[in-house]
């Protein structure tokens, strides 16, 4: 009989269980440390548990343009509504599509909850306004009559065959004392709204002479511009509220993440409905991403008129701002008169070019939203639901533990420890996934976690029963633990794969809060595999080496007599034939 190769592991064996235990211990410590380091030590709660308002909006297309209600336009609307709500200082608001034509907006309890409810249903307003002045986003003191500075770098726009530029790319360094004269001169420029009035008084010779008289509206706008703090989210959201398209206004624009500029803008010359189409495309000749715009017939005439005036100005008065919901999303400069087709180019990547194209297209979409339902959940009701969910989970866990102790005795210790490890990993991951991907623990998610208790316990039971089967065959515990593992492993993987597949399908085909159930079920199913492979099996291997379990103590749950084990299989040698002395 050939001797076994040295160092060969038995089937299903794990010669070094300490490695697996060390690996899962390191993962637990790292995840727990990351949770405390991030400052999010509790899972983020959904509307039904934390309280707040859930609004359902239904998209409606204009007659004859029903195809406008499509996935691309709905996703663009979701992004605009989300930015609008979060811009009001409402933290952790959720905006998502539901089905083909509905948008769900979940607004947690907060100081601006009422204002957010008023904002979500209004149609986005997109305008093209000439830039009169621009400076950094911080507030300044009262202006004095000193020439103003201007931005050191600027974007540009063009028609077909012209040159174009990017979004805001730099901010000016003008101080408070250098703004006043530029503001006044900009507002005095020809516009639909007069900015100065005159009074007459006689001169020394008796001839009346016109004397400029400050316009109160101009002075108020100058003061508003200098005092505007674009670093404050609330001021950014309310900077241009209540201003009609034909009036000048102020607005904020983000040059880079966390870097803001403030703009003094003239009356709107072109509206969003004047844009026929816009999209981000890759210019193959120049190897750069650009945004192309096509205007309607009426929009082409308006755009040609305004760009003709702007192209003759100097920076920043040769720029037009693309303003969405009172925020400047781009401010390209104009180098020549543009017509029906134009492009915006600069330091775009694919994502930023497509985002701007979607925003510009949204202004031309024949979409409006009507409020289907508004559901308000009080904090008290949410707390009661959370408490009920926790009680249900505790009852379920308690029943599982009672069953394990009564039936498996000492083996229940391994199962309880494994359930504790799984619960810890689930809690930490839920706390980390809140700020990372916006996961919110709602009531269906709690139900998914409760169901997962049974799935996790089922994996332990499968393994324990395989070990008992091996003991009934007459094997000792240590070989039984290793021989039972491959069979149990296959069963556990198949079972968890079916559970995960069901969770994945449920997550894909459902909408709303049911996704929370599916996500939690899928997450805990994956954790079950991790815990069984890296904790339950290694711990079982180590405990099989102890006298309490190895000798089959009556309370170990592995007593051969209680299991009805067969006598140990012993190998017998075949009797050798007698040897004839003569043949020796």
Q: Looking at the structure, what is the overall shape?
A: elongated
**Looking across the biggest beta sheet, what order are the strands in?**
4-9-8-14-13
Terminal-residue CA separation: 25 Å
Number of strands: 17
- Structural class of the secondary elements? alpha+beta
Radius of gyration: 36 Å
Provide the helix percentage. 40-55%
Taking pLDDT < 50 over at least 5 consecutive residues as the criterion, the unreliable ranges are 10-14, 142-156, 158-182, 189-206
Number of helices: 16
Percent strand equals 15-25%
Q: What's the story with the biggest beta sheet?
A: 5 strands, mixed, barrel
Q: What integer is the average pLDDT? A: 76
Structure description:
The strands form 4 sheets. The chain has a 5-stranded mixed β-barrel with strand order 4-9-8-14-13, surrounded by 4 helices. It has a 5-stranded mixed sheet with strand order 11-12-16-5-15. It has 584 residues and is α+β, with helices and mostly antiparallel strands. The radius of gyration is 36 Å and the shape is elongated. The relative contact order is 0.14. It has 16 helices and 17 strands. Strand 11 and strand 12 form a beta hairpin.
């Amino acid at each position: 009989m050939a001797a076994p190769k040295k160092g060969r592991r038995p089937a299903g064996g794990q010669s070094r269980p300490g490695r697996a235990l060390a690996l899962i211990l390191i993962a637990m410590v790292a995840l727990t440390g990351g949770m405390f380091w991030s400052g999010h030590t509790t899972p983020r709660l959904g509307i039904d548990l934390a309280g707040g308002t859930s609004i359902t909006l239904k998209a409606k297309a204009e007659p004859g343009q029903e195809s406008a209600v499509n996935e691309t336009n709905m996703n663009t609307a979701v992004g605009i509504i989300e930015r609008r709500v979060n811009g009001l200082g409402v933290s952790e608001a959720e905006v998502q599509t539901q089905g083909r034509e509905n948008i769900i907006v979940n607004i947690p309890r907060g100081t601006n909850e009422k204002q957010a409810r008023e904002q979500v249903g209004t149609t986005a307003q997109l305008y093209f306004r000439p830039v009169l002045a621009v400076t950094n986003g911080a507030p300044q003191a009262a202006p004095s009559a000193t020439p103003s500075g201007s931005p050191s770098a600027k974007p540009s726009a063009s028609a077909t065959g012209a040159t174009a530029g990017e979004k805001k790319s730099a901010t000016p360094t003008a101080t408070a004392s250098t703004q006043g004269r530029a503001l006044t001169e900009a507002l005095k420029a020809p516009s639909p709204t007069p900015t100065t009035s005159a009074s007459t008084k006689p001169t020394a010779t008796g001839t009346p002479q016109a004397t400029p008289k400050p316009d109160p509206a101009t002075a108020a706008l100058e003061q508003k511009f200098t005092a505007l703090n674009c670093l404050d989210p609330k001021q950014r959201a309310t900077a241009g509220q209540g201003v009609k398209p034909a009036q000048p206004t102020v607005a904020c624009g983000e040059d880079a993440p966390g870097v803001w500029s403030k703009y003094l803008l003239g009356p709107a010359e072109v509206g969003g409905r004047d844009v026929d189409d816009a999209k981000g495309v890759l210019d193959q000749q120049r190897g750069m991403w650009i945004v192309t715009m096509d205007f309607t017939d009426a929009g082409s005439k308006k755009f040609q008129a305004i760009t003709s005036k702007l192209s003759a100005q100097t920076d920043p008065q040769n720029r037009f701002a693309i303003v969405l919901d009172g925020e400047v999303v781009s401010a390209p400069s104009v180098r020549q008169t543009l017509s029906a087709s134009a492009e915006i180019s600069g330091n775009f990547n694919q994502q930023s070019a497509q985002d701007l194209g979607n925003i510009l297209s949204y202004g031309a979409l024949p979409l409006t939203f009507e409020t289907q339902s508004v559901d308000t959940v009080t904090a008290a009701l949410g707390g009661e639901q959370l408490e009920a969910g926790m009680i249900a989970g505790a009852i379920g866990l308690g029943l599982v533990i009672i069953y394990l102790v009564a039936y498996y005795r000492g083996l229940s210790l391994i199962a309880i420890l494994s359930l504790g490890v799984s619960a810890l990993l689930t809690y930490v991951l839920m706390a980390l996934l809140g700020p990372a991907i916006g996961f919110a623990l709602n009531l269906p998610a709690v139900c998914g976690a409760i169901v997962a208790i049974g799935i996790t316990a089922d994996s332990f039971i499968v393994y324990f029963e395989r070990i008992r089967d091996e003991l009934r065959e007459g094997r000792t515990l240590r070989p039984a633990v290793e021989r039972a593992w491959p069979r149990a492993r296959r069963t556990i993987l198949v079972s968890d794969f079916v559970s995960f597949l069901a969770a994945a399908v449920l997550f894909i085909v459902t909408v709303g809060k049911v996704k929370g159930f599916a996500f939690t079920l899928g997450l805990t199913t994956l954790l079950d595999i991790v815990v069984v492979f890296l904790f339950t099996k290694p711990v079982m291997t180590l405990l099989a080496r102890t006298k309490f379990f190895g000798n089959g103590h009556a309370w170990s749950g592995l007593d051969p007599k209680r299991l009805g084990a067969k006598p140990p299989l012993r190998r017998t040698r075949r009797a050798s034939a007698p040897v004839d002395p003569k043949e020796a």
